[in-house]
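Collaborator request log, item 7. Partner lab (contact: R.S.) asked for a structural prediction of Deoxynucleoside kinase domain-containing protein to inform their binding assays.
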Amino acid sequence: MNSIQTKPFTVFVEGNIGSGKTTFLEHFRQFEDITLLTEPVEEWRNLKGWNLLDLMYKDPAKWAMTFQSYVSLTMLDMHRRPTVTPVKLIERSLFSARYCFVEHMNRSGTLHPAQFAVLDEWFRFIQHNIPIEADLIVYLKTTPSIVHERIKKRARSEEQCVPLSYIEELHKLHEDWLIHRVHAECPAPVLVLDADLDLSQITDEYKKSEHQILRKAVNVVMNSPNKLSPKKPIHTSPIKIVPHMRVL
Ligand SMILES: Nc1ncnc2c1ncn2[C@@H]1O[C@H](COP(=O)(O)OP(=O)(O)OP(=O)(O)O)[C@@H](O)[C@H]1O
Ligand SMILES: Nc1nc(=O)c2ncn([C@H]3C[C@H](O)[C@@H](CO)O3)c2[nH]1
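Returned to partner:
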């Protein structure tokens, strides 16, 4: 008998700019029954001809509010995207937008306090009224200097002037959220992967998350005719889970 799929096992893939989130999602393209939702960067780069990402990086004081408003809309659309597969991987989330990027803009004064208050109210309203939570967060933990080099090498035009200091500040905000668990509203367990490893070694690191992700798909799929057929063995190696409430 088919299992009735009410909500897919939802995984947020989080990490600093250039940490390898898109690359991580691509690793899971080999498996069936998983929906992969990449960050809507192209929508931010072209909204009716406007490159909001570029405008935000060039003049954050003027464009941060506009950009974050559109990030919220596009990310909410991702969270609410109907999913027929038992597992859904999302690149970033409304939580990283609020806890990392908007938080940084507030602390740095890029956003006026009134603008921050509006964005925060929108986040709280959505969080309390729309189910957007994760069942697991995969945190691609990196060293700022390493991802800064990757950003420069990738050479996305809008990011050419992103300073290392910005990456370091975003890193701290990711660590506060996902390692030190300072935000109680996002209780999902966190699987930490060492995303500093280069491309020749990173696949083995990504495989550490397969068991946590695919077993959920297998559990659900086992009750339906089309079995999940991972083309590679599921690894059961011990992995590091950061519980919601850390015992410090
Ligand atoms: N483990 C790795 N080692 C070396 N380079 C990597 C690694 N993972 C990704 N890269 C490279 O770094 C750049 C950023 O990778 P990717 O786009 O996957 O990161 P991202 O986290 O999705 O970035 P963004 O936050 O900007 O969307 C790409 O050029 C990619 O080829
Ligand atoms: N300001 C700001 N707020 C966000 O919520 C946000 N989410 C992603 N980004 C930037 C990082 C990369 O350059 C690029 C791709 O991740 O977009 C953001 N920037």
